């Protein structure tokens, strides 16, 4: 007996599963903790539950039909693949393959289940990211319906167009690890969703204070290091390009974080360095290098990190105050900036900075090596191709997000009622992140029960309900 099929490389398979797990950690717990710490205290558990539920729903949809739509055989020309399950013996233990890429890249040396799981964690993190745009007002039930539909009609199309051998992949568009498929898509869809659902309560917008910066730090740290799997796993082989992608990812992130801190200290309203500002810069670097990680040199990574961070800093400082529609849409955590604009910027810079000497797959015999070349390296059309792919993602994802939400809105209200918005987690889920230990006896028809005041559906501090020494729920 032997443990491996003849085609399987234990090293490649181990790295693919490890990289996928690192990406999974970026969602749970990293974004759950990061977003949960960034929002007001009263929305922390709603945020965490939405993140975990999205992870669950995406996996179910992914293995039943959506993976094949993104990475299977063509169904509607080169737009999307044929839906299908990957839960049978061959779907889990057969050799991984992306039909339209056969002959254009080395054959995979791991099973289909490794490819399915690796691509699943990418799919899951995309709607998880734009939870930050709609938090604090979207109904949880609406989100549960929205996610499977969005993965089916938006994400699977994005993946097929660029990664599954579809139209833009065939044209030579470069999106190494999801600057367009994930981050631009999240920024656009989150922005449109925030517009359709409407703003948070004005009181919440005026008091949008993070409830736990240490949680933010933990989430940000896991997110940063998890990105090693995000970009390092995307060559699909544990080769030199994977190592280049990892070092470029960390380098771009480091310079982007410091660039944001310098901008805050030099031009910010208070001329102070802040940790939250640094985290925004960090995310800009991670997002900006994502479409480029294995195509550019370390010098290119530095340029992308600095440019993306400065551009997003300027955009976030100016657009919400002066430019329509940014001044009309309440994107609660600024996803359109740190993911949408940053992803777009990184994708366009690939069209300039992709270096053909950065080899993804080595050519053998008469077959040329696989790499990318940008405008600055003798391929003037690449920038136009990158722009065309970006425009497709923007239009398609914006339209699909709008139609899905409007369709759901025909049958149920999209927003949490205002009286529940005033209370938050306690009203929506019956729990809260920091419950009070103060207990009170409540009489009801001659009976009594012990109840946690802070878990009451009625807001503490409301008229006629003002116990002493009990902290108010925000």
Could you give a short description of this structure?
This protein has helices at 10-38, 44-71, 89-93, 112-129, 131-134, 140-162, 167-171, 179-197, 202-206, 213-232, 240-267, 275-289, 298-322, 335-353, 382-409, 418-423, 425-429; strands at residues 439-444, 447-452.
Query: What fraction, in percent, of the residue positions are helical?
Result: 55-70%
Provide the structure class.
Answer: mainly alpha
Helix-strand sequence: HHHHHHHHHHHHHHHHHEE
Distance between the termini: 63 Å
Spatially, the strands of the biggest sheet line up as 1-2
Folded structure, characterized:
With 474 residues, this protein is an all-alpha fold. The protein folds into two domains: 10-409, Ammonium transporter AmtB like domains (Ammonium transporter fold), CATH 1.10.3430; 435-474, no CATH class. Helices cover 59% and strands 3% of the residues. Strands 1-2 form a two-stranded antiparallel sheet. A hairpin with a 2-residue loop joins strand 1 (439-444) and strand 2. The N and C termini lie far apart (63 Å).
């Amino acid at each position: 007996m032997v443990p491996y099929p003849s085609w399987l490389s234990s090293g490649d398979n181990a790295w693919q599963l490890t990289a996928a797990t690192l990406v999974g950690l970026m969602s749970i717990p990293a974004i759950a903790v990061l977003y949960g710490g960034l929002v007001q205290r009263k929305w922390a558990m709603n945020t965490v539950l939405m993140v975990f539920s999205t992870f669950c729903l995406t996996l179910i949809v992914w293995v039943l039909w959506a993976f094949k739509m993104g990475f299977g055989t063509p169904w509607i020309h080169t737009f999307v693949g044929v839906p299908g399950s990957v839960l049978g013996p061959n779907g889990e233990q057969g050799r991984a393959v992306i039909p339209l890429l056969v002959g254009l890249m080395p054959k995979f040396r791991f099973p289909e289940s490794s490819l399915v799981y690796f691509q699943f964690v990418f799919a899951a993190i995309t709607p998880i990211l734009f939870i930050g745009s709609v938090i604090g007002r979207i109904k949880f039930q609406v989100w549960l319906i929205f996610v499977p539909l969005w993965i089916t009609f938006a994400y699977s199309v994005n993946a097929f167009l660029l990664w599954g051998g579809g139209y833009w992949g065939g044209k030579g568009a470069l999106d190494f690890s999801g600057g367009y498929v994930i981050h631009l898509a999240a920024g656009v869809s989150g922005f449109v969703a925030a517009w359709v659902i409407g703003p948070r309560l004005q009181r919440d917008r005026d008091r949008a204070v993070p409830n736990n910066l240490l949680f933010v730090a933990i989430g940000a740290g896991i997110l940063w290091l998890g990105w090693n799997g995000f970009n390092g796993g995307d060559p699909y082989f544990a080769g030199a390009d994977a190592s280049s992608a990892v070092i470029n990812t960390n380098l771009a992130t480091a310079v982007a974080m410091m660039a944001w801190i310098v901008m805050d200290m030099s031009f910010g309203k208070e001329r102070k360095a802040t940790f939250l500002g640094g985290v925004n810069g960090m995310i800009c670097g991670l997002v900006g290098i994502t479409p480029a990680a294995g195509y550019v040199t370390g010098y290119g990574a530095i340029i992308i990190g600095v440019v993306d961070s400065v551009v997003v800093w300027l955009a976030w400082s100016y657009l919400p105050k002066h430019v329509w529609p940014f001044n009309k849409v309440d994107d609660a955590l600024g996803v359109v900036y740190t993911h949408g604009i940053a992803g777009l910027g990184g994708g366009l810079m690939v069209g300039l900075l992709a270096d053909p000497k950065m080899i993804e797959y080595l050519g053998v015999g008469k077959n040329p090596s696989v790499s990318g070349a940008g405008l600055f390296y003798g391929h003037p059309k690449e920038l136009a191709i990158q722009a065309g792919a970006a425009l497709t993602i923007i239009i398609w994802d914006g339209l699909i997000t709008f139609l899905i939400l409007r369709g759901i809105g025909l049958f149920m209200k999209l927003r949490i009622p205002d009286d529940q918005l005033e209370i938050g987690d306690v009203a929506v889920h019956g729990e809260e992140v920091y419950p009070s230990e103060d207990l009170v006896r409540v009489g009801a028809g001659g009976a009594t029960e012990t109840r946690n005041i802070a878990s009451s559906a009625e807001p503490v501090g409301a008229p006629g309900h003002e116990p002493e020494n009990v902290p108010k729920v925000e």
